[in-house]
User: What shape does this take?
Amino acid sequence: MTIITNTIDGRDKPIKLRIIFILNALKIVLTFGFFIAFKYGGFAVNELEGEPAASLMLYTMFGYIAAFATMVVSILKRSMLGLRAAIVVDFLISIPAKAPIGFAVAAISMGLTFTNAVKAYFAHRD
Assistant: This one.
């Protein structure tokens, strides 16, 4: 019989930290989808269309990947400052692309870092 407990002692990764991870991973996949749509599907949004928009999405995706890698390292090293810095950089990466989804994911991620469970995880030392 398995007993599931919801502790906030900081030993295990909390659900909210997993949500940050999943949202940012999905944002990378979504940006790749936009790259494909602009490059091969003739997709257009306001003034964004064609090859320049595809290039912008590609570079934005590379930026998201770098920020995501920094987030993963910060989570593994239990560095709250590193995680929050990566989220701020992630938000800044969204500015040239005018990516409202990127802004929203960064804002949600930053908000989740202030929850007690996430704070407890980063405060816990083995």
Summary: The first strand starts at residue 44 and ends at 45.
